[in-house]
Design goal:
- This protein has 14 helices and 11 strands.
- The protein is of the alpha/beta class.
- The protein folds into 2 domains: about 40-165 and about 250-290, D-Maltodextrin-Binding Protein, domain 2, CATH 3.40.190; about 170-250 and about 305-330, D-Maltodextrin-Binding Protein, domain 2 (3-Layer(aba) Sandwich), CATH 3.40.190.10.
- Strands 7-6-8-5-9-11 form a 6-stranded mixed beta sheet, with helices on one face. The protein has a 5-stranded mixed beta sheet with strand order 2-1-3-10-4, sandwiched between helices.
- Helix 3 links the parallel strand 1 (about 40-50) and strand 2.
Length: about 375
């Protein structure tokens, strides 16, 4: 009886989807422990785009793997490989697609070269927050489109965390007008980089390990990264004084993506466990980012000045984004289709968000 109760409690706490299965197994056990049904052990190789145990993102996937082991009673082992151990950071998509590895954990917008529409699943400048993105993906048709388009690469994606709102970046000089952006060299990827380009910025891509030195030496004038928690670790405050509030990554989505054929071969139970552990990881990551950012914000060095970009710049950014989305839609039918789904949710969500969250936050402040 004790065993049975432990089983059911564990399942209810961990993942309600598993409760039925666990009950069934507990039933088998209580019938006299003679033939305990235990699934065959499965080991999956998962490569990430981060260094080993990288704070929040890397530790998040470590916990995901641990939870898969716990929830499956040890029958599902996910071996996590940090970037460049099995596969270079930016080749995890191709390696999983080709079944050289089973899965990867990375950022979705890295793959816009594969299909421009993928950048939308990763988040949109001036667009949906993390919570809104997850809502669109889960309830607004986003997941169906994402899985359809990734299916063409023999991949099956799951949301694998989210960053919450990111900051606008570190600048060596204050930005008081649109003119101040002209010719500025800034490390900024994705659709945000496209928008900045149309505002006169020269966007550059640099590997994480080279950003600080480039900023410190003035090879670049500005850089975005994530938020106070991870930015503090990079030491940007020693190279730039102006820290701008965010607009270009209001809720970036990370992914845990599986080789589709491998995914389909997994047992129903293992698929349910992975799905539950990925959802748990997504919630945890959003909460951990919030907490760690709040703490880091409270202890920024004295030289750092928090700034908000001028209104005329944000107005120009909105108009440039509109042009970027129009141009991408003309070039790619998939981009147009995904954007239509995203914007339909945006339109549905906004009136309710305005009178609930937005209104409340204004009252509260
Ligand atoms: Ca970023």
């Amino acid at each position: 009886m004790m065993k049975r109760r432990k089983f059911i409690t564990g399942a209810a706490l961990g993942a309600s989807a598993l409760a039925l299965n666990a009950c069934h197994r507990a039933e088998e056990k209580s019938k006299g422990d003679l033939h305990v049904i235990k699934a065959k052990k499965v080991t999956l190789k998962l490569a990430t785009s981060w260094p080993a145990h990288f704070p929040i993102m890397g530790t998040g996937v470590d916990t995901f793997a641990k939870r898969c082991g716990e929830l499956s009673d040890g029958t599902l082992e996910i071996k996590v490989f940090a970037k460049n151990i099995l596969v270079p950071a930016m080749q995890v998509f191709d390696a999983t697609s080709a079944a050289q590895i089973d899965a990867f954990h990375s950022g979705v917008y890295y793959w816009k070269g594969k299909n421009p529409s993928f950048s939308i699943f990763g988040g949109m400048p001036l667009g949906l927050t993390s919570e809104e993105m997850i809502t669109w993906l889960k309830f607004g048709g986003g997941y169906e489109l994402w899985r359809e388009l990734y299916g063409k690469f023999n991949l099956y994606p799951l949301i694998g965390g989210t960053t919450g709102p990111q900051m606008g970046g570190w600048f060596k000089k204050e930005i008081n007008s649109l003119a101040d952006l002209k010719g500025l060299k800034m490390r900024i990827p994705g659709l945000g980089g496209e928008v900045m380009k149309r505002l006169g910025v020269n966007p550059v891509l640099l590997p994480a390990g080279e950003i600080y030195t480039a900023l410190e030496r003035g090879t670049i004038d500005a850089t975005e990264w994530v938020g106070p928690a991870l930015d503090s670790m990079m030491g940007f405050a020693k190279a730039a004084d102006y820290y701008y509030t965010g607009w270009h990554e209001p809720g970036s989505i990370l992914e845990i993506t599986f080789n589709k054929a491998r995914w389909e071969k997994l047992s129903k139970e293992h698929r349910a466990i992975i799905t539950a552990a990925a959802a748990e990881m997504t919630g945890n990551m959003l909460q951990e980012f919030r907490y760690e950012n709040a703490k880091a914000m409270a202890s920024l060095p004295k030289n750092v000045q928090i700034k908000t970009f001028p209104e005329e710049m944000m107005k120009a950014a909105k108009s440039a984004l509109h042009d970027v989305l129009r141009d991408e839609s003309e070039k790619s039918a998939d981009f147009k289709k995904v954007l239509a789904s995203y914007q339909a949710f945006e339109k549905l969500n906004k009136p309710w968000d305005d009178i609930s969250t937005k209104n409340f936050l204004e009252i509260r402040s």
